């Protein structure tokens, strides 16, 4: 009889899938939270986070972002995201618990988190790098996902001969973006016409 390999067989003892890319380094921890834990975190984040509908000015017109966002962190760490100046909301215990998990895997401390709530497939985030000047250069970013599964694509900023990378981010996973990944690569969560469950993503960062 052929046994179907589970992700645990392939990545036992909480070791990550290493995604080898030139000019960067990605580690993907599958099911770092159990399905039950992940769905509890999703429900609590949906309720406890102070979600906002932000807008950007595009060609002189105000456009709502295709997702809800929130920004939490240590006091006095302001940050500009897509032209929007944001003051962090103070940490809540729920976020501090998730932060501790991310810090253990990343072997680094974080002082802020950007949260995105993708309500449907028409929500997404377009090509960008998390390389704003406020962020400490080449410092780990930990991306935690709860809820629906979404595609996460990466493309090299300058070398079009380097193949795009596609990752599938499932509920309870943590993706670490390490080294020079933000310096050389863009990433996006594309919109999709397929039905997808709502998804909450947290990116833990370090602001200087
Ligand atoms: O939702 C994701 O997986 C990525 C979010 C992201 O890239 C960001 O917040 O900068
Ligand atoms: Fe990002």
Task: Write up this protein.
Helices cover about 15% and strands about 40% of the residues. It is α+β, with helices and mostly antiparallel strands and about 210 residues long. It has a single domain (about 35-205), classed as Sandwich (Jelly Rolls), CATH 2.60.120. The chain has a seven-stranded antiparallel β-sheet. A four-stranded antiparallel β-sheet has the order 9-14-11-12. The chain has a two-stranded antiparallel sheet with strand order 3-4. It starts with 6 loop residues before the first helix and ends with a strand. The mean pLDDT is about 90. It binds 2-oxoglutaric acid and fe (ii) ion. 2-oxoglutaric acid binds near residues 114, 152, 169, 189 and 203. Fe (ii) ion (FE2) binds near residues 128, 130, 187 and 203. This is Slr7097 protein. Keywords: Dioxygenase, DNA damage, DNA repair, Iron, Magnesium, Metal-binding, Oxidoreductase, Plasmid. One of its GO terms (molecular function) is dioxygenase activity. Pfam families: 2OG-FeII_Oxy_2. Its cofactor is Fe(2+).
């Amino acid at each position: 009889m052929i046994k179907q390999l589970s992700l645990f067989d392939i990545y036992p003892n909480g070791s990550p899938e290493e995604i080898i890319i030139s000019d960067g380094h990605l580690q993907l921890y599958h099911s770092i939270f159990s399905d039950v834990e992940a769905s509890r975190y999703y429900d609590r984040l949906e309720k406890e986070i102070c979600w906002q509908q932000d807008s950007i000015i595009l060609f002189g017109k105000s456009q709502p972002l295709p997702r809800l966002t929130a920004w939490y962190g240590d006091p006095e760490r302001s940050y500009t995201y897509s032209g929007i100046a944001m003051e962090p909301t103070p940490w809540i215990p729920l976020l501090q618990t998730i932060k501790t998990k991310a810090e253990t895997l990343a072997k680094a401390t974080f002082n802020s988190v950007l949260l995105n709530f993708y309500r449907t497939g028409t929500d997404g985030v377009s090509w960008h790098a998390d390389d704003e000047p406020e962020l400490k250069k080449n410092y780990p970013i930990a991306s935690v996902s709860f809820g629906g599964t979404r595609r996460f694509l990466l493309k090299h900023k300058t070398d079009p001969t380097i193949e795009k990378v596609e990752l599938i981010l499932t509920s309870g996973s943590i993706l670490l973006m390490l080294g020079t990944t933000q310096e050389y690569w863009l990433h996006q969560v594309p919109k999709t016409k397929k039905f997808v469950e709502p998804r909450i993503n947290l990116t833990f960062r370090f602001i200087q």
